[in-house]
Amino acid sequence: VQVVESGGGLVQPGESLRLSCAASGFTSGFTFKNYGILWFRQAPGKEREWVATLNMLDNSTYYSDSVKERFAISRDNNKKMGYLQMNSLKSEDTAMYYCVLRRGGVDSWGQGTKVTVSS
Fold it and tell me: In what order do the strands lie in the sheet with 71-76?
């Protein structure tokens, strides 16, 4: 499975961005809808941090405390796309953001998209 993120950029504090995650290369009878979606981020000089999860079974969503109420994870199975809507961005949200597709304990990572929040 190949994963490609997009949508990062430079924004000012308080603004919004929507990150996208395009998936392809599905085999073994599984399709995009059979995968859970996660977003992680890694800020300069810091460890990678989990941001959000969208459960493949019931589409339940989970968020880290640092982004809860500001970020929203979603998916479009027809387009094979995952999304992370980020609102009320703060300087501490500056990081490289990674999309992960997960199934059966196997994770497929994208190359990341950079988000910079600065005035």
Answer: 2-6, 17-24, 81-86, 71-76
The pLDDT value recorded for residue 105 is: 87
In the prediction, which pLDDT does 30 show? Answer: 83
29-59 pLDDT per residue, tens: 788 988 999 999 999 999 999 999 999 888 9
The answer to whether residues 75 and 84 touch, using CB atoms and an 8 Å cutoff, is no
DSSP string over the chain: -EEEEE--EEE-TT--EEEEEEEE---TT--GGGSEEEEEEE-TTS--EEEEEE-TTT--EEE-TTTTTTEEEEEETTTTEEEEEE-S--GGG-EEEEEEEEETTEEEE---EEEEE--
